[in-house]
C-alpha cells in the first residue's frame, strides 16, 4: 500500500472519528438537558407540594383560631391581642436560598413544643369531647408534615450543607388559667403569621432556585 492510499484511509478514518465524536457530544448535551429538565421538574414539584400544604394550613389556622376563641369563654376576643414572651419569631431570616429554607424549617420546628404545651393546657380546660382538641391534633400533624416536606427539599438542593435543627425552645413558666388562654391564642396567631411568610418565601424560591439549578446543570 503506497503512501497516497494510506493517506486516503487515514483521512477517511479521521472524518469518521470526527463525525462520531460530534454525535457523542450532541447526545451528551441532549442527555444533560434531559437530566436538568427532570431535576427542575422534581424541584418544582417539591416546592409546589410544600406551598400547597402551607396555604392549606394557613386557611385551617383561621378556622382553628375561631374554634379556639369560641371555646375560651368570656373576653376571648382580647386573648390574641395580648403580648406574650417566649413565643417564636414568625419572620423568615437569611439572604441566600439555603438560609431561607433552613430558616423555614427551624422556625417550624420551634413551634412544635409550643403546640404540645397548648394542647396539654387545653386538655385541662376543655371537655374530652371538645372539637378544639381534635382540631389541635390534626393541625399539629399537618404542620409536622410541612416540616417533613421542607427537609428533603433542602437536602436535595444543598446535599453538602447540613440542615440546622434549631436550638432548644423555651416554654413559658407556670401560668394561671387566664394566662394559659392568652398564651394558646398568641401561639396560634403567631404561627398563622409564620405560615403566611412561608408561603411567600416558597413562591419566591420556586422561581429562583429551580430555574437557577436548571441553568447551572445545562452549563456543566
Written account of the structure:
The chain has 220 residues and is mainly alpha-helical. The chain is 78% helix and 0% strand. Helix 3 (97-125) packs antiparallel against helix 4. The longest helix is centred in the N-terminal third of the chain and has 68 residues, at 3-70. The radius of gyration is 27 Å and the shape is elongated. Mean pLDDT is 83; it is low at 28-38 and 213-220.
Task: Identify the notable features of this structure and list them briefly.
mainly alpha; 4_helix_cytokine-like_core; single chain; disordered C terminus; cytoplasm; 5 helices
Low-confidence stretches: 28-38, 213-220
The quaternary organization reads as single chain
Per the principal axes of the C-alpha atoms, what is the gross shape? elongated
What distance separates the N and C termini?
45 Å
State the secondary-structure class. mainly alpha
Largest sheet: none
Proportion in β-strands: under 5%
Number of strands: 0
How many alpha or pi helices? 5
Topology as a string of helices (H) and strands (E): HHHHH
Amino acid at each position: 500500500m503506497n503512501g497516497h492510499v494510506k493517506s486516503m484511509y487515514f483521512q477517511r478514518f479521521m472524518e469518521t472519528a470526527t463525525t462520531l465524536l460530534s454525535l457523542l457530544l450532541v447526545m451528551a448535551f441532549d442527555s444533560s438537558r434531559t437530566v436538568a429538565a427532570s431535576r427542575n421538574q422534581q424541584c418544582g414539584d417539591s416546592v409546589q407540594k410544600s406551598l400547597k400544604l402551607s396555604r392549606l394550613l394557613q386557611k385551617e389556622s383561621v378556622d382553628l383560631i375561631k374554634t379556639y376563641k369560641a371555646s375560651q369563654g368570656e373576653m376571648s376576643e382580647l386573648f390574641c391581642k395580648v403580648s406574650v414572651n417566649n413565643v417564636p419569631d414568625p419572620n423568615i431570616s437569611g439572604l441566600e436560598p439555603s438560609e431561607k429554607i433552613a430558616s423555614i424549617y427551624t422556625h417550624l420546628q420551634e413551634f412544635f413544643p409550643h403546640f404540645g404545651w397548648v394542647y396539654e393546657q387545653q386538655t385541662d380546660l376543655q371537655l374530652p369531647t371538645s372539637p378544639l382538641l381534635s382540631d389541635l391534633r390534626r393541625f399539629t400533624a399537618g404542620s409536622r408534615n410541612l416540616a417533613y416536606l421542607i427537609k428533603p427539599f433542602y437536602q436535595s438542593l444543598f446535599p453538602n450543607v447540613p440542615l440546622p435543627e434549631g436550638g432548644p425552645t423555651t416554654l413559658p413558666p407556670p401560668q394561671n388559667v387566664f394566662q394559659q388562654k392568652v398564651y394558646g391564642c398568641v401561639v396560634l396567631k403567631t404561627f398563622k403569621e409564620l405560615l403566611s411568610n412561608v408561603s411567600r418565601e416558597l413562591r419566591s424560591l420556586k422561581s429562583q432556585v429551580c430555574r437557577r439549578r436548571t441553568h447551572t446543570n445545562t452549563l456543566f
